[in-house]
Amino acid sequence: RIGTAALAVQVVGSNWPKPHYTLLVTGLCRFQILQLLKEKPYPVAEVEQLDRLEQFTNQHKSEEELGELSEQFYKYAVQLVEMLDMSVPAVAKLRRLLDNLPREALPDILTSIIRTSNQEKLQILDAVRLEERFKMTIPLLVRQIEGLKLLQKTRKPKQDDDKRVVAIRPNRRISHIPSTTEDEEEEEDHDDVVMLEKKIRTSSMSEQALKVCLKEIKRLKKMPQSMPEYALTRNYLELMVELPWNKSTKDRLEIRAARILLDNDHYAMEKLKKRVLEYLAVRQLKNNLKGPILCFVGPPGVGKTSVGRSIAKTLGREFHRIALGGVCDQSDIRGHRRTYVGSMPGRIINGLKTVGVNNPVFLLDEVDKLGKSLQGDPAAALLEVLDPEQNHSFTDHYLNVAFDLSQVLFIATANTTATIPPALLDRMEIIQVPGYTQEEKIEIAHRHLIPKQLEQHGLTPQQIQIPQVTTLDIITRYTREAGVRSLDRKLGAICRAVAVKVAEGQHKETKPDRPEVGEGEDCKEHVTEDAKTESISDTADLALPPEMPILIDFHALKDILGPPMYEMEVSERLSQPGVAIGLAWTPLGGEIMFVEASRMDGEGQLTLTGQLGDVMKESAHLAISWLRSNAKRYQLTNASGSFDLLDNTDIHLHFPAGAVTKDGPSAGVTIVTCLASLFSGRLVCSDVAMTGEITLRGLVLPVGGIKDKVLAAHRAGLKRIIIPQRNEKDLEEIAVNVRQDLTFVMASCLDEVLNAAFDGGFAVKPRVERLNSKL
Ligand code: ADP
């Protein structure tokens, strides 16, 4: 219970990257704790001062004996200091101090300078009597002198170096010179740098890394703690120790179990599951990771990430997701060099540190959204990570030593392959994950999403029932997406609303047979009622009726989610000539697109709006040229009856949702149909959608994304779909129930397209006759 009172003179340090402070204090005197007054937030105690310097000088009694002791101490101290290099200013100052300071203060000062263990220092501090203090310190001085003599004998030539070190760091330097090994060990226990060194030596890092670490720790030992670099180096070394150089989980892979697990976690997506199983089977047979890197490409919310997680689960590996969306600096992947302030390792190394094993499953999310900037190209950095030939010696700039990534299983996800840099694409095997049909969505909702949401909201199936018709309503009228993410959110909203009802019911419900549905008006009524009956509710609790599940029907849905957001707008929008429905593919899945055209007096100009790319503009020109050249055949005229469609006429073509950039050739047939309707004055069938590229001769060429487009048309309630003849093979991928709902028209030329798009066909011959008679 003895301590030292001290005055804080200076506080240096910083909070970054970790709080790290150095406190400079001047010791004043010893004190003893009489009574502890409080411990928090900081200790406060009643203390008694134990030593006062002037007191010692006045003590006559033991003066003689003390005099002898202090004289003896002084001699040893002088001997010790003179063994050092007097040319060093710090040593010369120490020598002067010995003469100038009162003798009584010397034991404390010298104990703090010479090499002593913490234990010994504490003993000296505990020695309140001056005589005792001198007696205890003298042997320490002698030990130091002996040590120094020994050292001078053995290391004569190096002596100068040691002293130079002394000059820079007077306090530490003396501790550098001497020492018996036991002392050293005792102090080592308290010294975390030494602990760190031990950890480094016992860790299983690579030889190269060990070499670097040992060099760094040597530097660290010589560095004052207040230097910013000290914290930096320490952090570096701690990271090196923490990295899983050799630590891995054991793979447990059994294909049959993997199949069951994948099937349990995910409904539908047969193609993806099949490919994943093949991949895993190859890995089981051939214990070699140098396979392709899988990349799941598909719209958001179709389960790409969750399949990645399932793969990790089947393999019994750790899972880590690295979001790459918006990353535009290569040091995000590969780390910053340690020379920068605030340097950090890249995401790969950070991920490894987080999972703590060297064979996790890393999911590189959104590789198609990697950016590029002045700070280098992150995609190029990823190349090294993903290339099995190179990644066994991946060098993060921060680590500056190679780390073996060959055990890591990488899986990538993307919305589209169009924006993935080609070199990166080349290293991956693309697996398309298309959107879901309505039926699949209903199944997914009832098998996976609803049970998950119920659990998250603390509800049970006894409390809420969502019938399949309601789910279908949510899917068709409240969401318009390829995946199931918004559906999941809507189900979450329903669960929240029901949770409120259930919670209210548990505490306050007094009415015996409440209507089962959570309507809004009902809710208001309920609240006011509660307010009235609150005082009696406690006693009424006993009389609660057995709980009824809350059934979510269409009315409840409307109250919870508001009025439907999407209505079938198709028939309404096709009520005038000059509108046709096209099918577009976007990274978010397929979509239906209304193409609108109008004509007005003018000079034969074509105006295109709706943020179109060059290819789309070309399609529009192609369409007009084809129609102009076939105007007579189809009896198409402009407003003044001329077959030259652009004579005194301007045409405006618009592709709605103008904020979205659109490009690609697949709108060709739609533009032709739309213009044909405009010039013929006939309406396009309201349940027909189409896609296909056109040529100047009127041929229809195949296009991509048929499955997503067909699903979009199905979602929108369309019945007939015109696709290019050569895309017929793509229909096989589409679920049978969707195919049954739709009629497909395979078109190889524009005549067939127009015939299918208009009720009663778009005939050629009879009109030619009429044309003759007119002339
Ligand atoms: P993505 O990564 O494709 O954008 P997620 O993997 O995040 O989508 O999926 C969103 C949610 O939808 C997840 O909660 C996932 O469990 C669920 N989900 C998607 N597809 C399926 C499916 N086929 N079966 C079960 N749940 C699914």
Automatic annotation (TrEMBL):
It comes from the Eukaryota. Residues 506-535 are annotated as: Disordered. It is found in: Peroxisome matrix. It holds the Pfam family Lon_lid. SUPFAM superfamilies: P-loop containing nucleoside triphosphate hydrolases, PUA domain-like, Ribosomal protein S5 domain 2-like. Its main location: other. The active site is at S666, K709. This is Lon protease homolog. It comes from Charadrius vociferus (Killdeer).
